[in-house]
Amino acid sequence: MKKEKYTDNELFDLSVLVGNWESVNLHPTVIIYRNDDTYLLSLIHMNETSKQASPATYEIQEDEDGYFISYNLKRLSIGYDAWLDMLKLSSLGDYMRN
């Protein structure tokens, strides 16, 4: 079975992204899940002082350029490397499945 690498502008089945993802660059943890017909991406920010987790949830959208979320007033592109099973978020970097 040949696995493929999807770049930010190639569409793939979002169901492969469902699950928990940890940043290789110590960025916030990501959880992707399905809610009816939409897919949601939650970023879990940890406050180092209080050790409290604060999630922020975004709907994954798609257009002619691929999948993305609107994050901090910017477009955060979503890519996936099936060979490495790695999630790529444009400004946050690479994530490994947890």
Write structural notes for this entry:
The chain has one domain: Lipocalin (Beta Barrel). It is 0% helix and 57% strand. It contains no helices and 10 strands. It has strands at residues 5-6, 19-23, 29-35, 38-46, 53-59, 61-63, 66-71, 74-81, 86-89, 93-97. Strands 1, 2, 3, 4, 5, 6, 7, 8, 9 and 10 form a 10-stranded antiparallel beta sheet that branches. Strand 7 (66-71) and strand 8 (74-81) form a beta hairpin. The radius of gyration is 13 Å and the shape is globular. The protein starts with a strand and ends with a strand. The mean pLDDT is 88.
Globally, the shape reads globular
- Share of β-strand residues: over 45%
H-E order: EEEEEEEEEE
Oligomer: single chain
Mean pLDDT: 88
Given helix and strand content, the structural type is: mainly beta
Indicate how many domains the architecture comprises. Answer: 1
Could you give the count of β-strands?
10
CATH fold name:
Lipocalin
Query: What is the CA-CA span between the terminal residues?
Result: 23 Å
User: What is the level 1 CATH name?
Assistant: Mainly Beta
How many H/I helical runs? 0
Helix content: under 10%
Note the main sheet. 10 strands, antiparallel
Question: Poorly predicted ranges (pLDDT <50, ≥5 residues)?
Answer: none
Architecture in CATH? Beta Barrel
Radius of gyration: 13 Å
Provide a compact summary of the structure:
The protein has strands spanning 5-6, 19-23, 29-35, 38-46, 53-59, 61-63, 66-71, 74-81, 86-89, 93-97.
